[in-house]
TrEMBL record, chains A, B:
Cofactor(s) the record lists: pyridoxal 5'-phosphate
Transferase found in the keyword field: yes
Keywords from the UniProt entry: Aminotransferase, Pyridoxal phosphate, Transferase
A GO MF term: transaminase activity
PANTHER family on file: AMINOTRANSFERASE (PTHR42790), KYNURENINE_ALPHA-AMINOADIPATE AMINOTRANSFERASE, MITOCHONDRIAL (PTHR42790:SF19)
Limits of the Aminotransferase class I/classII large domain: 30-383
Protein name, as recorded: 2-aminoadipate aminotransferase
InterPro entries: Aminotransferase_I/II_large, Class-I_PLP-dep_aminotransf, PyrdxlP-dep_Trfase, PyrdxlP-dep_Trfase_major, PyrdxlP-dep_Trfase_small
Gene Ontology BP term (one): alpha-amino acid metabolic process
CDD domains on file: AAT_like (cd00609)
Gene3D superfamilies linked to this entry: Aspartate Aminotransferase, domain 1, Type I PLP-dependent aspartate aminotransferase-like (Major domain)
């Protein structure tokens, strides 16, 4: 049977622990899940989307169901421009592209930039599924030393000596998996280096509207606008199933990204884009983000209090100012890969730290999502987790 | 500025005449368009989709807005299985995948199968945008001699001597661009050859429900089920903007296609999939296809009558039994690339034959879509076209 696969196959890209966690959780809804970075289902705006869907079909009629423009549905492009301007990203609509989710934006960009042999630099730890995406395009992925603020400028400078670097992938704000935010000074230092080396940064910024305390830091884009592709999405603040991503591109990348988009999925759903445009244009977006930030802030507070209560001193965790995740590090020798089975057995789920490093070796860390689980189950979930850890 | 693009870029993939036609038509709605393969906007089921959207949000609640299963939304997988069974394609759900449109299915498959240097064999003429997709993955595309029934068995047999053939791309039913349908005998002959060579066929079958006369021919899949990837979509029979494609995979391809899907756009919109599932489960689908086939059959009849009236004997056209397109061939020496500008000027649009051949050289043919234009403008459009051709 394998005879039918005559051409070389892509480097094997297999399902990882995130997919397995989703599968297990789908079978066992009683498990308290700190595993996945999905919005709290109780907060998904079902009635709002129902109203918006009816409104856009009345307003736009068949245009909302037809093939559309590759770049994006014009009313959403305009709303995206305003949304980005509110984040200090001022750019014309002809530099924007509406993608099929943030993941669709990243994949489309990889189609334009990566060839076998190209190298992508990432933080350590970084968002594991992005590493799989880069590898699926034949790229090598290399970690650059990082601290509590993200990538280290000197380490990046040294790594950029390699001429095969295609881009540097950063999650500067409420990072997945650590929840940490890169300071403005660090952003400026990293920007200086990438501009000096003439290399591109891909800024993955999908949690930025979920800030619970502290002062917003300008997007990395604003420190190096000609050297940055900025990606955001509405999956965390509206609904994952609308699959709406927004991408800000340097001028020289626009044509190739849009030409490739036609071959990837022609265009992002005009229906979903019309719903998203109406959501952003009205008061619904601000109201909904207010609801999310209040709820998730309370969950984060509950989780850090529970960690302090149930975990002893040799455990450390990040205290993020926003987003969906914190990063728990246990004592040296703890193997969180080995703890995942027993944890699921006892009724709690997390993702082991290995999922967020390029080599994927077992380590003593884990990612905990505080956004998805009901607030009144978080303390018990952390208690179960502490028991499994032997803490 | 190009300094930021340090890695090798993909072979240049540029917008083609189809994209340009869309752009021109968007600016000039008064043009009678035979250019694009989009459903008649007057027939897009706006009220039906509005009702279905409201129903699925009531029935599934937040599940319709959340992240979902990579393979597809389970109720749609089940409806897809039934739809395919009605086409003689009996396969278990674990061989199916719900893609982001038919184009998403093809792209996802290319991610799994194509490497630079791989070769894809196509009919001549073939669907031009697919050629661009194959090239965007680094493949070479080669035409195989074809006649009024499609690819020629002997020519295919000879072409398959090359060990670098990744797959053979076929549009057996109501082909885009010619409208012709491959007979059952030809399908059997082609199937014998691909099975003997142990090579994969990709069957692109998105028009099959739009049959206006004649007897259905079994899908190519049923002649070589272990050697065929079957792709269909709901873009022509429900709505393009839902971006729903359905892919039937040989068992050995399922894991890699689904693992790559996670990196392409995570999963196809659960909201769109829920709407599609409900559409297929109820009477709406059959009713809507009945409406479409009646309307498009009348348009096809109007167009062929107009061609007979306005074009002289040295012009030939196909008489398709279904789909959206017919293929008009003029006398030797006619250059349809050169006629496109004057045609748009005079108020009618078509796509030149060059868009459907690998080399893209100007030729004497053109693709005419009869589905999109209002029926009462078709005769006048063909009359304008005849004048532009000097016919």
């Amino acid at each position: 049977m394998t005879a039918i696969l005559r051409a070389g196959r892509r480097p094997a890209v297999r399902s990882g622990p995130i997919d397995e966690a989703f599968a297990t959780l789908a079978r066992r809804p009683e498990v308290i899940s700190f595993a996945v970075g999905a919005p709290d289902p109780a907060l998904l705006p079902v009635d709002t989307v129902a109203a918006l869907a009816a409104e856009v079909l009345t307003e736009y009629g068949s245009t909302a169901l037809q093939y559309g423009v590759t770049r994006g549905f014009p009313p959403l492009l305009e709303q995206a421009r305003k949304l980005l301007s509110g984040r200090g990203i001022d750019c014309p609509v002809d530099r924007l592209h509406i993608a099929t989710g943030g993941s669709g934006a990243l994949h489309n960009l990889c189609m334009a930039l990566l060839e076998p042999g190209a190298v992508v630099l990432v933080e350590a730890p970084t968002y594991g599924p992005a590493v799989k995406v880069f590898r699926s395009h034949g790229a090598q992925v290399r970690e650059v030393g990082s601290d509590a603020e993200g990538m280290l400028p000197r380490a990046l400078d040294a790594a950029l000596a390699d001429p095969d670097i295609a881009f540097v992938y950063l999650l500067p704000t409420f990072q997945n998996p650590t929840g940490r935010t890169m300071s403005a000074d660090r952003r400026a230092a990293i920007a200086d280096i990438v501009v000096r080396h003439g290399v591109l940064v891909v800024e993955d910024d999908v949690y930025t509207d979920l800030r619970y305390r502290g002062t917003p830091v300008p997007a990395f884009w604003s420190f190096a606008p000609d050297h940055t592709v900025y990606i955001t999405s509405l999956s965390k603040t509206l609904a994952p199933a609308l699959r709406i991503g927004i991408e800000v591109l340097p001028g020289e990348l626009v044509d190739s990204v849009l030409a490739l988009k036609q071959g990837i999925d022609m265009q992002t759903s005009a229906f979903a884009q019309a719903i998203a445009a109406r959501f952003l244009a009205g008061p619904a977006a601000a109201d909904h983000i207010d609801l999310l930030t209040k709820s998730y802030a309370a969950k984060l507070g509950t989780m850090t209090a529970a960690l302090a209560r149930h975990f002893p001193g040799e455990y450390r965790w990040t205290e993020p100012e926003g987003g969906m995740f914190l990063w728990l590090e246990g004592p040296t020798g703890l193997n969180t890969d080995a703890l995942l089975g027993p944890a699921l057995e006892s009724g709690v789920a997390f993702l082991p730290g290995s999922a967020f490093f390029v080599e994927g070796a077992p380590n003593s860390a884990m990612r905990l999502s505080f956004a998805g689980a009901p607030v009144d189950r978080i303390d018990h979930g952390i208690e179960l987790l502490a028991r499994v850890c032997g803490a």
